[in-house]
Amino acid sequence: MGQIITLDQNMINMIAAGEVIERPASVVKELMENSIDVGATKITVSIEDGGRKLISVTDDGCGMDAEDLAKAFEPHTTSKIRNSDDLHNISTLGFRGEALASIASIAQVKAVSRTKDSAAASCIEIDCGNEGAVRACSADFGTTIQVRDLFYKLPARRKFLKTANTEISHIIEQFTRIALGCHFVGDAFQKSNERKQPNPQSSSAASRSLNLALIHNGRELYRLSGNQGLRRRIAELFPILSVGTYEDFIEAESDEKGLHISVLLGTPNCSKTTSKFQYIFLNGRFIRDKFISHAIKEAYRGLVEPDRFPVAFLFIQMPYEDYDVNVHPTKIEVRFYNSNLVYSQVLACLREKLLSTNLEVRAKLPVAASVLAKEIAPAAGRRNQNIADAIAEFLKKHRPAQTSPQAGFTARNYYPAAKSGVSVEYAADRPASSGLPQTIAEQRNFIQIHDSFIVAQTEDGFVIIDQHALHERILYEHLCKRIAAGRLESQKLLIPESFELAAGQADVIEEHAELFEKLGIELAPFGPRTMAIQAFPTLLANAAPTDFVQDLIGLLDHKETALNAEKLLDEVLNMAACKGAIKAGQKLSNSEIEQLLADRAYTESASRCPHGRPTTIRFSMTDLEKQFKRT
Ligand code: ADP
Ligand code: MG
Question: What is the pLDDT of residues 468-508, one digit of tens each?
């Protein structure tokens, strides 16, 4: 009897705080979002002791008068929505009206605010829910909110806070998300924003230039200027990604069916072991969405190895009424009303761009001077530098006159089929002999080294090709095309090859009879536990039939339940390409190399093998000249 009581408002706030405020970084997020929502162009975040001691956020936004300042810290108070219709059209980052009340219930808070047209500022102090009176004070326009001693009356929560280093790293992550979400986005994006923002008066900062600073224990960690471009901002936030180097990042954009997508994609070469470097923003809000993450993964299928994650900064703009943000207390997840559309638009935008971009890996050469110095005399530093400089000087002086590329040295000769669209013999396309004896280099612009790699000259340098990886990619695409068109061509074996079946394998063959037929593999029983291979696909002429069929049965045996038909077929074709491809260590004739190079020109994603490893590394003349200090 009488066991149930109504919780007082402060308890309610503290409970709400449990959902929204997990650690200092959550406070930083809520306060920065508030500043953005009120139109700030400058936000300074000051932290002490990882946020345990102090979190202070100052902005130059619209500010609050005395009445609003007192109200802002009461529960369920907001200026951002008024009725249920507004809930379906949320253009601000916040709308639940509970962040300030929650924060004030678990810390000592001091807020100072002044609107632009008021002469004096107002100030309020709240100690774990005990609200003091609003006083007049003097301050610049805008708002400063200081949060001290977070969780100090909740020892259980405070105990869970980690070291200052860990807490500041969480704060940096929140700061980064906000800094990217509201970055100044450049021309193309800008135009699209103007067109797309359903509510032009909206205080959403997706198209605003915002100056941001983050200071920890008096040391400035970031100072981001409002008019820097996206690349610059990412480069400052993620120095390790070398976003500044244009070759490593690709921009893509699409604008269809009310959905604007703008994305900065890392090349497969700078993929990571975690998905930490995938940032998705929806109308300026950082979100997590497993469908979109999957679309990114799919877009890179075959371009990065399966256990690696591409780097991607993805910005989506769409009408606010097309999704619901009111599904998660910290709004990190949203519900799209048409998630299939979002998925397919993202996939198409990324995939198209990736397939039409030359993703060859550029060689990363060591710094020229140190290489020379090391090779000449490993011990004496300064002297080596002098020698290196002297050599460079010599090379510079004795540099031969620049010549235009000679006939027979251009890329056209590698890919003789470029004109007709079909593979033809290299010799047929060679320019008519001028009568002069051709040098070896003129006849052939490639060599095979260690029977594994092909070094081939290109118009502006040379490439090193992994013969197995490239042939694997070519074969994979051939196989996919043929299978899509029906079945693989096969050839009867003159002498059928037979092999023993292990227990259960006959069933596997029977179950996948259709797949065997598609692949052009004909099998016939040859005794109680023996099978004979009677026909085998011509495309896989390089593979040993028995080995291949046995491995195929092994694969089908293990994978059958886990994968759907399409994925299974893809795995089979992957395996077939790997087994049917030229091996490393296999000597190739010149015409085989020519064929390989010719096929390369017609293969989509030729820069990566089907497992996502690079097939080609490109060296440019500029790189070489730099190395030899010719420039
Ligand atoms: P919400 O952001 O969901 O509205 P909050 O509790 O975070 O809820 O904030 C309550 C209200 O206080 C906001 O709606 C806004 O009107 C006001 N407010 C909060 N922060 C600021 C600020 N930095 N400048 C001006 N007004 C603010
Ligand atoms: Mg808020």
Answer: 999 999 999 999 999 999 999 999 998 999 998 888 888 88
Strand, helix or coil for residue 110: strand
Quote the ligand 1 centre to 34 CA distance (angstroms): 5
Nearest Cα residue to atom 1 of ligand 1? 97
Which residues pair with residue 617 across a beta bridge?
Answer: 361, 464
Helix (H, G, I), strand (E, B), or coil: what is residue 332?
Answer: coil
Ligand 1, atom 20: closest residue by C-alpha: 34
How remote is the CA of residue 115 from the centroid of ligand 2, in Å?
18
For 574: left if phi > 0, alpha if psi spans -120 to 50, otherwise beta; the answer is: alpha
Per residue in 242-296, pLDDT (tens digit) is 776 667 889 999 999 999 999 999 998 888 888 999 999 999 999 999 999 999 9
Q: Using alpha carbons only, what angle is made at residue 545 by residues 542 and 551, rounded to the nearest 5 degrees?
A: 105
* pLDDT band, residue 563 (cuts 50/70/90): low
How far apart CA 282 and CA 231 sit, in angstroms, is 18
**Ligand found nearest the CA of 102:** 1
Which residue's CA is minimally distant from atom 19 of ligand 1? 34
Please answer whether residues 194 and 206 qualify as being in contact, where contact means their C-beta atoms are separated by less than 8 angstroms.
no
Residues with CB under 6 A from ligand 1: 30, 34-35, 38, 59, 61-64, 72, 77-80, 94-101, 143
**Given the structure tokens 């050599």, which residue do they identify?**
391
CA distances to 24, 50, 569 from 160, in Å? 11, 13, 49
pTM of the shown model: 0.73
